[in-house]
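Hey team,

Filing this mostly as a record. A colleague (T.K.) asked me to run one chain through the structure pipeline before their review meeting, and I want the input and output archived in the tracker in case anyone asks later how it was produced. No errors, nothing strange. Just documentation.

Input sequence:
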Amino acid sequence: MLANGALLVGAGRPTRIMSQAIHCEPDSLTELLATFPLPVDFSGSMTLTGPWRLTAPQNGALFGVLSGCSCRLSIRGTEETVAIVSGDFIALGPACGGYLSSDAEGGTIAANEAGQHSRNVSRTPLTSAGDSTRTRFIGGTLSFTGREIHPLFMSLPPILHLPHSDIENLPALGSILSAIEEEVSATQPGSGAIVSHLAQALLIQAARLYLGETSDALHGLLHRELGPAIALIHNEPEAPWTVASLAERVNMSRSAFSASFTRILGVPPVQYLREQRMRTACRLLQDSTIGLKEVSSRVGYDSVSAFSTAFKRYSGTAPGDYRRRDQAASSG
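Output structure:
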């Protein structure tokens, strides 16, 4: 019997174990992840030694916690660097323009490639300084299909850095990291599936810490009326959307749609559309096989000059310069 209790029959007398249904109130993050599962590509523990540079896979994301010696986060095309120390959580979204590297840089390593070739596990505690020549990165990568990224990353900044001081009071996170290492080293049947789920839990914990109890973007994506309109913007950025046409697609008046969108998302529909087109353009520019004319067309611009003006206003640099800087950083 499973409804109110389970009956276990063994060598001795049958034992009845009473169970109680657990009811959790729905929330935006849970609903989002149920609707859009996280596309985890690699999960585990990477060990990096010597000079190295770690990047997210193309059209994907990298996330995890650093253990061992410190490294640096660099922003492509700028001189800006941020120190990443043991215990810090870092997530690099698509086209974020950032990469992790040792103090003495080496060749570029895609995160999923590093994971495939280096899964050695250190038993030292996460907070330990560890070997001064070795860095461990515990986490995973996600691969996005087509032109769109996972909706969760629409709510996170392109580079999410949570210092150890911000996450040290989350005991669940430490337990997840330890469990990942144990499963990777155990290599038992089903370990891959368990590690994948644990890596997702790691990312969700960090996202929950950053997002807090509410998130305008999450609420917008799951909003009964606004959600479909936001999905249209993300799925078809090249379409000639206007406030009126979007409002019509979700059966709302223009004024009601604009007011509701601005209230929930924090920006007017036209601004949200413009910024999403530029985020899409940043990802497309990373692929050198796509010409500027095609990039312009795929984000809704009839001419390269109009697109270039809009892109420079958004990023501070021309599309061609952005692409050349990205390629130079990737080959460095």
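Quick notes for T.K.: The radius of gyration is 23 Å. The first helix runs from residue 28 to 35.
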